[in-house]
Amino acid sequence: MSCFHKRPKRTKSEELLFQEHLKKIAMENGKRLGLEGDRDLKFLLTGGELIKVRSGSWQKSRFYKLQEDCKTMWHESSKTFKTRQTFSVDDIHSLRQGRQSEGLQKHTNPSTEDRCFTIIFKGRHKHLDLMAGSADEAKKWVNGLEKIINNMQNLSRQEKSEHWIFNCMRKADKNEDNKMSLKELKHFLRQINVEVDDTYAEELFKECDKSNSGALEGSEIKHFYDLLTHREEIDVIYKKYAQVDGQMSSRDLLNFLHNEQREQVTLGNAVKLIEKYEPDETAKQRKHMTKDGFLMYMHQQEGSILNPAHSKVYQDMRQPLNHYYISSSHNTYLTADQLKGPSSTEAYIRALMKGCRCVELDCWDGANGEPVIYHGYTLTSKVLFRDVIKAIKDYAFKTSDYPVILSLENHCTVPQQKLMAHHLATILGAALVTELLSDATPTRFPSPEELKGKFLIKGKRLNKPDGVSGNNNAMEVDSVSEEDEAAENKENDQKAKPKKSKIKLAKELSDMVVYCKSVHFGGFEHAKDTQAFYEMSSLKESKAFNLAETAGTAFIHHNMDKLTRIYPAGSRTDSSNYNPVPMWNTGCQIVALNFQTPCKEMDLNQGRFFPNGACGYALKPEFQRDLASQMNPGSLSKGPWLQKKTLHIMVISAQQLPKVNKEKHNSIVDPLVRVEVYGVGADNTTKETNHIENNGFNPMWNESFQFVVHVPELTMLRFLVEDYDTTSQNDLIGQYCLPLTSMQNGYRHVPLLTKRGDVISSSGLFVHLMLLDAQ
Questions:
Q1: Which pTM value belongs to this model?
Q2: Which band of pLDDT confidence, cut at 50, 70 and 90, is reported for residue 67?
Q3: Is 749 a catalytic residue?
Q4: Which residue of the set 75, 163, 330, 749 is catalytic?
């Protein structure tokens, strides 16, 4: 809701008081963010002229300014001073200084490099290309916004909640008198997603209006806030363990950690939590934790569902590359559908920034001798191969140091292949692996640790890499048979087998393929007898799923010493995705998905790679790496993989769920929670709560579910919060997914993400979880 509304013109003295009032609000918000007195923040609050760039001919000056809530940016036309648009800092994904976007590179002069910057938004919002008056001003804009974003991210969920509620109260104060009338209170409750009847609102108002003035102010507003944010479920837990003068001693806290959270910790660990999170100095000196300290602790990573130890790289990264699941993208260049959607370097940047470690490049001859990337035989737009490689070079290792695989689907003529090889060599430089890492004859892949900061090329090769011995049936000629099923089936997704075609292959490009040589899949026995470890196949989803069902054990064994890539069927022209879990169950490493499509399958992919520092690599279970293993996901025979557990989940409550339909002023959500378990066939199941009517602020369910899990090491857990609708499909409010092996027991807060995987600030679920051996 906009803060700008019509009001009588202020007198000069009223205007001065109003401006002082706004400064005070800005100071309070700056202090909350830890930016009190910050020069860059002051610069944003003052605002300034920026040139908004849309094209070569559309470049217009706009006045941009950060509002006093330190969360909302708005701009005015420099001529009419009419408010045009606002956006929240929460909606910003990242900032890029310089001419880093396709638009700025195309529509601005290189001499403006240090004056340009781009605001990248979450989701599908178009990014904002801007040019400041000077390099110094551009730095202030970028630094100031990045400080706010970083400090907002570093706030605890409780602090984010307070910041959000505080600013909702400010917006509800229509006449800006620092008081809250009954009418404003009702408006505020609707803003925070709570619908109450007039009687309850009046009772709440009277309880807080101690002065009987007809308006809440000062301590009365604080009392109203305390009543509103009271967490009854936290009170119950706290009172149960607070045994010393109504407070938790360090011993009480240790009992809670042992009995409820099932954590193997010492008294020293409990004391450290008190020292870290207790705000009351007197209590801290007594080694006590107050209820405020307890709530603060519960909102930190120690109280999260995700094991804090798994939020960084914790797995052994020195295993061979094929021993890991690898976060992988299909048709990475697309930002929409497969038929007429745009191709963009931005799509590569977004995938890499999400931890993707295998990207696809569909290469075709382009104009002026320059190869291009697009979806062949369709109306999708084209992007230059060299621009894509530059973008990959710039963003490949910003979120993860581990290797990136460039999966080349090569349809180019020899001259343009040579230019591809030139671009790869000159742009990627020493980071490109063009020869074996060791002088010794290799028999297995190097590890992600050995390949840190490196690029691997996946594609066709004329012969085996120098120094490699073993079986190899590749032709030692200037052409290779294009039998790779990925290329065949993409161009012809019919049931009839496509005709084999031949392409000329440039030696310069061929020699860059070292550890990931594409070959036709002729069956598991054929691969075992004839394929070298570095020769890999790409399988269409239908074939891969069939193999998983009919030859699960053989599939797992095949993936113990080779890489396998799975890709979506060509019939998925809408860029939809298949379920990746059955493919992970058979040990497939490169399970490629359409990253541009928000869906359940992408939630599972993001959840799979959340742990281990979200580095894009997840170590497969030992039974998928041990040659003695006879595991078959389709039939649960006895073995080390079979560890039957009972998962108990109580969905207790949610906090500050966002409105789904923000266009409708009076729209309030009716939330329900669905809990989904994904794994081997016997473990797949879904259960859901009842819906709560008209309460998205603090709904409470207290509903318990029980799940039987047979293979916990392959199990994924997904929470889905929806807005219940009797007449149509429920709308997504938020979701969260993680591997069961990264789940913490006990009372835990579950963060919620949007359909595109971005964190919803201050929102979450509160649950109790317990994974026990099945009786």
A1: 0.83
A2: confident
A3: no
A4: 330
